[in-house]
Predict the structure of PX domain-containing protein.
Amino acid sequence: MSSIDFPKKSITGNFSPETISSRSAGFENFLSSVAADKQLKDCLAFTSFLQRREMLESLRLIQDEQYDQNSFRLMNKMQTDRSPIVLRYLCLLVALYHTHICGTSVELGRAVATAALAVRRYQYVCDPDLLRYYVPLLRATLDLCQASGNDTNHIVAHLDDLKRKGVNVESPASLFQLVLHDLYPMLEGN
């Protein structure tokens, strides 16, 4: 990461157009540097530092059964579609929808759409830490599709194909347990 020079603090003149412009340019430079550094973007501690408040608010809303996708949208803009933190949070949303299979068709539609997005994004994932979510994600997606009356043939066929290839598709771990365990360090100290 290149050196980032923010303007030095001053007792007076903090709101001058020059200082504001200089600080704004420095902050943009910082964000560009962060966005360019894959190791930093994927660091759970750094992501927690930037998004802990939003994650806690999301969890509060989730506890009230108000599923919040704003944190996911924010992470998705800052990260890539298949970055570990984005995929984990997307899986968390699917897991929460799955845990509380929603009653209304609008909620079920949103749940199925979120699950379908997660499955699409997982198609090219090679990270072993993330791949352990794949079968539980497929199983949760299958349940959500069944609950909403959507076609499940493609998911069943995919699970059967994985089983033929020797993958244990009867995974006892729930998607929720797996993701929450991995995201827990981000939520410590709330």
User: Anything to note?
Assistant: DSSP finds ten helices and no strands in the chain. Residues 52-187 form one domain.
